[in-house]
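Support reply, case 0932

Customer input (verbatim):
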Amino acid sequence: MAGNTQNLEHFDHRDLTLGLLTFASSATDVIAFLKLQEVFTSAMTGNTALLGLAIGRGHVFAAIHSLIALGGYIGGVALGALVHARDKQRELMLILLAEAAFLGLFFVLWSQIGFPTEGIWLAILIACSAIGMGLQSVAARKINLDGIPTVVFTSTLTSIVMTLMHASVRGGNISIFNAKRQSLAFAIYASGAALTAALLWQGFNAATSIPLLAIFGALATQYRVSRTRGSSLAR
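Our regenerated output:
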């Protein structure tokens, strides 16, 4: 039984897909915070804290921006939950396509109007980004790798530390593969945030395309998996 468990402990296409989604969410949060008036469009814990802060300080417009992000994220999750297909792989790809559509709309709007500081266009950009991230959270659930949600990493960090501590106490009686997998996702999130922030800091606003490119990469990965499975069934 232990041997079978060891054979299952390897990285595969799911890790690549989740890595790309994680990169997308980290870039999205940096873009939203730096360019969309300090909101988060994937990290709803942070966004809710910002909402409370804005309300407490009486900053009405900041509160509205955070509410739009929260509502958009909830809408994205609801939309993703409605997607249904007979084949789970197809279902996942439809959700990713929907996410790509909203992030694509975000990129097109940005290329036309830039980053507004207020008004309806700012609200639309926040909503597009948040809806995309809500859809992504559903996609991550469909992939279903333990402890890697792609949009929130507090619980992931808790899991990493707990696993390593248990392993240090119990020696070889506990596997740390999931901790390795989670640590890689955490590192990808941090790297995506750092890279996007550095590019924006240098005035390279085309970094706005990073989330969309990452989603295209995830779609390409899933398409390849579908083709491979289809070829196998044909035989």
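We compared this against your earlier run and they match. Two observations from our side: Residues 32 and 38 are 6 Å apart (CA to CA). The first helix runs from residue 2 to 8. Please reopen the case if you see a mismatch on your end.
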